[in-house]
Every structure is written in C-alpha cells, then in structure tokens.
Design goal:
mainly alpha; single chain
Length: about 140
C-alpha cells in the first residue's frame, strides 16, 4: 500500500516536471518556476526552524545568565545596604559621643572661667575693702 502511494506521488511529480519542461507557453514556465521556488522554500524551512531554535536557545541561555547576574547584584546590594545601616548607626553613635564630649568640655571651660572670675573678684573685692577701710 505504501509503494502504491509513493508510485502515485512519483508519477504525479514526473508528470508536472514533464509538462513544465515541454510546455512552450510562458505562463506554464511561470507556474513551474513558482512550483520550484515553493519546493525550494519548503526544503529550506527545516534549516530556518533549526536556526530559530538555536537562536532561541542562545537567547534563553543569555537570559538565564542575566537573571543569575541580577540575582548576584541583588544579594550584593542587600549586603551593602546592611553594611550601610551598620555604618550609619556607628556614625550616629560617634557623633553623639562627640557631642557629649563637646558639652563636657564646654561645661569644664565655663567652670574654670567662673572659678577664675570668682577668685579674681575675691582679690579685687579684698583690695577695695582695704582701700575703703584705710580711708
């Protein structure tokens, strides 16, 4: 049954080929050329499909690579953000400690200046009292 089918297709193809070769009119040649171009296009389709499959696979590989890189960047970004938070907390603590030291230094200066002023005032007051009592 298969042989009969193949013989029928072969006979039909041979008949079309014979008619195309023997035909004198230009219209028949155009049909034959169109037929040959169609056969050529159909025969090239598997190659085109394979090329498209390969390009698709290459694109998928590149996409997976890009997603892997993106995931690595996300992880690195999360680590950097955590590090940034730690550094911000450290800077804040150091700034607070510096402000406390500055406040203590200011208080110490005020106390020293006040003590020196009181001591100077004491000596000046004593001198003024002595001068007033001597008169």
């Amino acid at each position: 049954m298969k042989r009969g089918y193949i013989r029928t297709i072969s006979a039909a193809f041979a008949a079309v080929l014979l008619i195309g070769l023997l035909g004198n009119s230009r219209a028949n040649a155009g049909y034959f050329d169109d037929f040959l171009k169609g056969v050529k296009v159909l025969s090239e389709l598997p190659n085109d499909v394979n090329e498209i499959k390969e390009n698709y696979q290459v694109t998928l590989d590149k996409l997976e690579e890009a997603q892997g890189t993106l995931e690595a960047y996300r992880e690195e970004n999360e680590k950097l953000m955590a590090s940034n938070r730690e550094l911000a907390a450290t800077v804040s603590a150091l700034t607070e400690a510096q402000e406390i030291r500055d406040a203590k230094a200011r208080k110490t200066r005020i106390m020293l200046i006040t003590g020196a002023a009181l001591l100077a005032g004491y000596f000046i007051l004593l001198r003024v009292i002595r001068v007033v009592l001597r008169r």
